[in-house]
Amino acid sequence: MKKFLTVLKFEIGNYFKNKSFLLTTVGLTLLMVGVVIVPTFFMGGSKKADAGEDTKNTLAFFDEKGYLGNPKEFEQLLPQYDWLNCSEERELKEAVKSEKAEAGFIVQGETKYTYVVENRSMMDNIQESFESGMLKSYRMKTLTEQGIDAGIVESLYEKPLQSDTMILGKDSAKNYTYTYVLVFVMYFFVLLYGQMIATSITSEKSNRAIEILVTSANSNSLIFGKVVAGAVCSLFQGGLILGAGVASYRMVRSAWNNRLDFLFDIPLNAWLAFILFGILGYLLYAFLFGMLGALVSKTEDISKSATPVTIIYIVAFFVAIFGMNTPDSVLMKAASFIPFTASNSMFIRVAMGSVTAAEVVISVLILAASCGIVGFLAAKIFRFGTLMYGNPIKFSVALKKIREK
Amino acid sequence: MRLEVKDIHKSFGGKEVLHGISFSVESGSALGLLGRNGAGKTTTIRILMDVFKADKGEVLLDGKKFRPGEYRIGYLPEERGLYPKKKVGEQIAYLAQLRGMGTKESKESMRRWLARLEVSEYENRLLETLSKGNQQKVQLAQTLVCDPQIIILDEPFSGLDPVNSQVLEDVIQEEIQKGKLVIFSSHQMGYVEEFCKDIIIINKGTTVLSGDLKNIKREFGNNRLILSVNDMEHEELHRNADQKWGSLVSVYGHNKEQLILEMKPDVKKEMILSALAKSGLDVERFGDYQPSLNDIFVQVAED
């Protein structure tokens, strides 16, 4: 135990003596705080809601034959835009080209038009708005011709409904953003620290420090010391940066008008799930990376050998990202019990879906057991692999040799 | 303390590399562990230190099973190993702590040993910035920093200039006088002869020679004489010897231009001396054969 603690102290010290570790931690923390607090200096005073005070977009239309009826009446149908009534098709195209108008509509019939736009963006609802206006205009005209009071009919269509939302479980929409961000953070940390652990082990092989280390302490202390040191430092680094962000947001929340709540207002249970599953997921992958480091002799060979594990993790990551849209789907439910994907999936289910305490406990137990098994394997492979030099050792070969012992 | 290695067998991947190695060392003396490259020296050392487990055989200390973890062992591997990008003092202290020293104690000892080996000025330098010889000395400091009871040195003199070699010599002698148990592996036979009371020569995983060095030398020199003649090469001398003195001696070998003659049974040195005098040859050197360890090694470890 004492040796493990000695190794742990040394490895943690290594991280903190590493200039880039310190710089990134401090830098990101300050950046986080800055991004949250500094804009508030420029926002002071205005407490009015912004809706409605945004500048309106301008749309152009060219209705040669007057299909839309009275242009002014049409413009009032869609008051959320400023309208530019063009007398020529060329005028309309120029207006769109010169950005005087966001887009233009050439009306060619009561129910036919051409949409003119410079670049069609992916989220374009201008066309939709125009269509609703055009359709409304057509309805009113036709109904009036039929002798039906268009106004009454319109009001029937446009009757506003009253509604209240009662969320029994989670508001997925609200939690989406921070869950997304935190899953990314988890992904990033696991890969970063995993690589660092593998590199640390391999370089001890290539500079032969391992010869001394392996005769001074047992290999369990060595590998567990490294992995746990990584866990401690990643917790510290992540905790500092995220904590700084959340704490500073708490301070200036009112200045932001609660607008960044979707990002920073993270409930306690989500935090706990993030930390718990984050650590377990990290341990699982860290041990895998440690194993890889032990099977390789040169740091250049690490990325090649690490490919299988990296791919597994990326797949797990994508499963999580896609699953985020349907946190209670069968896919997510299954994924939250498979050790490789559990850390991401279970966290998402806790944050965005509904999950029972029993399920959480079972998943934690499965994950913890997997960590134990992988850790045990990693220690054995570490012991065996660290004194073998040359080409990267195949995992299957390593397993066979351990069983021989 | 008496360390005994008994009949160690070890295989790797189905191939046996050690076929029954046995030797013993006592504290206050040094054992020379010798062998050609690939003979099995490092494997033996690793088994000693419990890095590998032997397939058969045992290692005893004072009659009981040897548990390396219970003793402070200083190990200088042939493949030097330390962190190139860390400060010298820091890593030595860390390695001392790993071997059981307290934090404060490790720092004090580290400074003491850096001073003893005359490399104190590099305490806060990164290891890779030092010259090879100084790195070697740092490695030595690492070996001795935990004040080990058992010291295993694998090629400690490689890379050291004559002055530094002297420093190391003195240090090793000191440790031996202090009663430490020293195992010394080297190809530099001169040093081995100087320090070691006992030797063991391993070749292809078997012991080919072991025992007290003085006795071994005497045995190898027993009944043997060297002879060299001016202006005559040893091949010619060899022919001469066979033809003229075949009843008295047989040619055992040669050492450069010196012929090594083995006296036949009941033959005395005086008889050969008179035969030489009668031959009229211009004798350059004649005397008892005192083989150097190098000579012995080459003889027993040749393919």
UniProtKB/TrEMBL annotation, chain B:
UniProt keyword list: ATP-binding, Nucleotide-binding, Transport
PROSITE patterns according to UniProt: ABC_TRANSPORTER_1, ABC_TRANSPORTER_2
Domain of life: Bacteria
SMART domains according to UniProt: AAA
Domain ABC transporter positions: 3-229
Molecular-function GO term, any one: ATP hydrolysis activity
Keyword Nucleotide-binding in annotation: yes
InterPro entries (alphabetical): AAA+_ATPase, ABC_transporter-like_ATP-bd, ABC_transporter-like_CS, ABC_transporter_ATP-binding, DrrA1/2-like_C, P-loop_NTPase
Record carries keyword Transport: yes
Gene3D superfamilies: P-loop containing nucleotide triphosphate hydrolases (3.40.50.300)
Database matches in Pfam families: ABC_tran, DrrA1-3_C
PANTHER family per UniProt: ABC TRANSPORTER ATP-BINDING PROTEIN, ABC TRANSPORTER ATP-BINDING PROTEIN NATA
Family assignment from sequence similarity: Belongs to the ABC transporter superfamily.
Identification of the protein by name: ATP-binding cassette domain-containing protein
Species for this entry: Blautia liquoris
